[in-house]
Design a protein that fits this description.
It is built from seven helices and four strands. It is α+β, with helices and mostly antiparallel strands. It has two domains: about 90 residues, no CATH class; about 60 residues, 2-Layer Sandwich (CRO Repressor). A hairpin with a 5-residue loop joins strand 3 and strand 4. The termini are far apart. One of its GO terms (cellular component) is plasma membrane.
């Protein structure tokens, strides 16, 4: 019974800790984040099983964690308020090319983070090309480009067409 109570306590502690750490804490791991994760994992294991390294204790911990996760999933599916508390809500970071500094500061997101996501997903290079940037509950940044922003695929197609035309034209002697 002691193992089950320790497991429940650690699960809830980590849930609260990572919820307070913010959405970006788990979205993209840097080297330092990965090292911290390894240390937290070791400390968590020690707290969960204590001195008892038996197979039964390990299985009890795993079963307790899975049941806790299933239980929280059921509670979240039945209560939007609980889901919002546990998962958080999307947060608007950029609106019509204008940075919303308050939400960005609170969520520890930089303009570089937004621009990186814009480049990777849409080939956008400037904030004024972004209609909306949203920090999702998962920690990722979604970009909605402006209607008049260039589409990376369209630009690639135009470049490809121009290269084909240039290669197809006969050279003057």
């Amino acid at each position: 019974m002691d193992v089950i109570l320790r497991t429940l306590a650690i699960y809830l502690f980590l849930l609260v800790l990572f919820r307070l750490a913010g959405k970006r804490a788990l979205s993209e791991l840097s080297t330092l984040d990965f090292i911290l994760l390894l240390i937290v994992s070791e400390a968590t294991q020690n707290a969960l099983i204590g001195d008892d390294h038996s197979l039964v204790t390990g299985m009890t911990v795993i079963l307790t964690l899975v049941l806790m996760d299933l239980g929280l999933s059921v509670v979240k599916s039945r209560s939007a308020t609980i889901e919002k508390i546990i998962e958080g809500t999307p947060l608007l970071l950029v609106e019509h090319g204008r940075v919303l500094h308050g939400p960005m500061r609170r969520s520890l997101v930089t303009e570089d983070d937004v621009l990186q996501s814009a480049r990777l997903t849409h080939g956008l290079e400037r904030l004024d090309q972004i209609r909306f940037a949203v920090l999702e509950s998962s920690g990722g940044i979604s970009i909605v480009p402006r209607d008049d922003a260039p589409d990376a695929d369209a630009i690639a197609r135009l470049v490809e067409q121009a290269v084909r035309r240039a290669l197809a034209e006969p050279r003057p002697d």
